User: Fold this.
Amino acid sequence: MDQAVPAGPWWLLRDGEVLAAAEVARSTAARMRGLLGRSGYEGAFYLPRTRAVHTIGMRFAIDVAYLDSDLRVLAVGYLPPWRFGRPRRGTRSVLEAESGAFERWGLRQGDQLELHGGS
Assistant:
């Protein structure tokens, strides 16, 4: 287990506003598994030390945000099932959510995000 990342609960914020409950992938195995095996997902899934993701074997499409080391959104994208996302230069972590979540949250390139919580 990655001791540097405390257990949840976590919250994803932008400008002090809570966008969603967040789950943090706290180990290499959790980062590799991601959202696989789930039939849907409510909230945000944060993958530290990750540059790219895939949806091979997934049952639903996802929104993907590529983040720099300060959690600033470098790029956003959409990944249908059975696809590979390309790494983006400067990416240090990735945020995933069920497709449509970023639109509901108004998440855009350039947004400064925060993760709060952990115990």
